[in-house]
Amino acid sequence: MDKKHIYQRRKVTLDSQKEFRLGEGKISGYCALLLGALSLLAVLAYRYPAYLTTIELRQLYNAETLQVVLKYGMYFSLFFGVLTFILNGYKRLGLAGISLTLLAFALGGYSIPVGPVEPMRLSLGVDWLILALLGSVFIFMALEKLLPRYKEQVILRAEWGLDLLYFCINHLAISAILIYGNYHAAHFDWALSPALHAAVQSVPVLVQFVLIVLCADFVLYWEHRLYHEVRALWPIHAVHHSVEQLDWLAGSRGHFIQVFSERAMVMVPLYLLGASEAALNMYVVFAALQAVLIHCNTGLPFGWLKYVLVTPQFHHWHHSSERPALDTNYSAHTLLFDKLFGTYHMPGAHWPAEYGTTSPLPRRFWGQLFYPLKMWLKKWR
Ligand SMILES: [Zn+2]
Ligand SMILES: [Zn+2]
């Protein structure tokens, strides 16, 4: 802990204009629009599964069962849309939701026959986007409302639209990211060891899972640290750090180079280790949930786990622009490597007062996309 630094409480003032309150039609309007948009996307994914779904994910869910979810999604969208008219507020959002749902009905609705799909090499992960968005809203938004860290921070905080855009792009690109990651990992074929694979697969799945977590964490730690400490790499990663209010959606913000490189790097240890599929699936679920959770605006008490795993408080410090926290807390899964390599920062029960980068970044998508290029050209001139 930095003795000279005075830790202050973060001040968050409630923006009552953006708050969701019962009875105004605003909640209904946004629900109608969200469900309408997701319903339309889902219907399109059922119509064109070869182009709009991912093979890897398709194997893990039952498309027919999800049509029941879609059915309820469509009816609830209509219900919330009508509710905006009854409540006489946010009727435009309600109407937009109803229109999208009616279009989804016109395109076949929830009863499009599910058949075998001709796999395409590259497709858009519309199915992944829908499931991740619905799951996040249900799990993480609920968590943030029930156990918030900053109670006054609203769901529609500054730049939420930008982060939703990042969320959509990164989820839609999942197929390209996976292909790139696998392709990259295949370069390490020379290091594959059948003896290691046999040894790893002979231990219980839970031990394999822990091994995967530790190996992935080591690689992710160093990849992350290089992004911070190599000057030419920082502008790419700075995009992730430009967010100034953290919540479940904030973690999605990331330059595509970082998203791709992270996936490619983490594939290498997983590929070399050769763990069983059950252990790998456990890791994928764990990593996906933890990545969202650590950005959440939640004061959920973790007890002794906060001394073992990366928690929201730990990763929030990584996003702080306060001096003692700069370039610390790189780990993605456990605290081991930050402790081992001297970059651990967790000042007791304190939380950051400020988030973001020390020098400002562009606040829009295109500006952030070209920000690294701009910085590199500036240096070479
Ligand atoms: Zn970072
Ligand atoms: Zn982060």
Automatic annotation (TrEMBL):
4Fe-4S is among the record's keywords: no
Fatty acid hydroxylase domain span: 209-343
Membrane topology annotation: Multi-pass membrane protein
Localisation per UniProt entry: Endomembrane system
One Pfam family here: FA_hydroxylase
This protein's record includes keyword Lipid metabolism: yes
Record keywords, A-Z: Lipid metabolism, Membrane, Oxidoreductase, Transmembrane, Transmembrane helix
Segments crossing the lipid bilayer: 27-48, 68-86, 93-112, 124-143, 164-183, 203-222, 270-293
The protein's name: Sterol desaturase
Lineage, highest ranks first: Bacteria, Pseudomonadati, Pseudomonadota, Gammaproteobacteria, Aeromonadales
